[in-house]
Write a structure and sequence with these properties.
The chain is an alpha/beta fold. 28% of the residues lie in helices and 12% in strands. Strand 8 (256-257) and strand 9 (260-261) form a beta hairpin. It comes from Glomerella acutata (Colletotrichum acutatum).
Length: 299
Amino acid sequence: RFAALSYCWGGNQTMQCETSTLEVFRKDIPFEKLPRTIQDAVKVCSQLGVNYIWVDALCIIQNEGNDEKILEIAKMPYIYGQASFTIMASRAKTAWEGFLQDRESFSKSDLSFLLSWQSEKGEKGSITLTEMETGHEPIDERGWTFQERLLSLRIVEFGSRQTRWTCQEPIPSITGNDKLYGLGVGEGATDGWRKIAEPNDLRQDSFNWGHCSKTPSPWGALVDIYTSRTLSFNTDRALAMSGVAERFAVLTGDEYAAGLWKRSIRDELLWRVEQNERKNRSTVYQGPSWSWFAVNSSV
């Protein structure tokens, strides 16, 4: 069993795996030198009895121009999909902030009302219902963490206001708030994505896309959210969505073409940017001109 970590780097990392540190890291990684977010994740694993954790900065050789890095990134669907759970450090803006520190108490304005509750054993109590939205977190601004969230079957999320357990089902949080599936991708895309995220039984005929979304395309709903996020390197625009695309292709049997899908490419070519296209078009090659890969803007 192993856990995976999803977090915000917040800039260059002083502790990361490189060709020069690989052999040293294989022997020992000093705990006290790790960024606080990674330290906190190790503590969570220890408390839950999990002996192994996958952290991108330490498990992928980070040297630029390293071919192995591309190969390891391609394994991300399997890493996050097969992990016992993903630790999501939603509240931390950087790897050095950590996420286990005390939170501010709920104010009265944050609370909605108490709902009476009774367990199957007859135990009576109450659940505090809060607003459906849990608030925007730093992790929601990062491009890479989008597919990490979607590819994970189970998530322990440490947010600014609460801790949530998500298992691709509407599970109550510690305060009783049961945000829809906890995926944060919007109602239109959620039902379709739940099937994509399953590692098994991804048959083309096993799900009817016609009933899964209020939007014209569940893929379009995902692209809307993904492109609103930021990347440290815009050249990662295709890579940071590649795991999601791979799952989509397995499910639908469709052919992926630089962010678009062959069966619906005539409609998907009608994408547009929210800001001036010339201003946001990349000066380096990120994809063909007809693909949203080629622009650094919300689509």
